[in-house]
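Risk register update: the risk of archive-format incompatibility is retired. Evidence:
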Amino acid sequence: MLGVLAVLLAVGSRLLLRPAPAQQVAPAAAPAETAPAPEPRVFVDVVGAVRRPGLYRLPQSARIADALARAGGATRKADLEQVNLAAPLADGEQVVVPRKTVGGSAPASTGAGPGSPSAGPVHLSTATLEQLDGLPGIGPVTAQKILDYRAQHGAFRSVEELDAVPGIGPARIDQLRGLVAP
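Archived output:
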């Protein structure tokens, strides 16, 4: 019996003292492979008819709808038909959620630009599609290009920046000078 006990102790000690290479390698390699890199972030300024206007930090893949949600959503006075919720966000962009207008008084397109100087200039950074479409020489396609440019590059800093919008050249900018403001 003493011999059997000695054999069991010898076999058992060999099993206990033998290293398990699979257990030492697998745990160290697994976390390094599964840790995803953090997604880059963008900062956007959400203003207008939202519950909590302000500066928000969002993932780079976020859309305008995500920025609107972070700002608490639109108010009842928001005119969401003027906002492309599916547009991607760009760093430094200002998302403007316009308010609904009373009656039919808001669109600048109802009057001829030069004939109504008291209405003031159309602000390129906040204008709606209809307001831009009402400018002389700007149709709905070019108005949409202006909105797309603004969504991609942020607020206009000068009227001359319109030159970067496809379809608008120096002659058109001269025609719009005084009717538009950044």
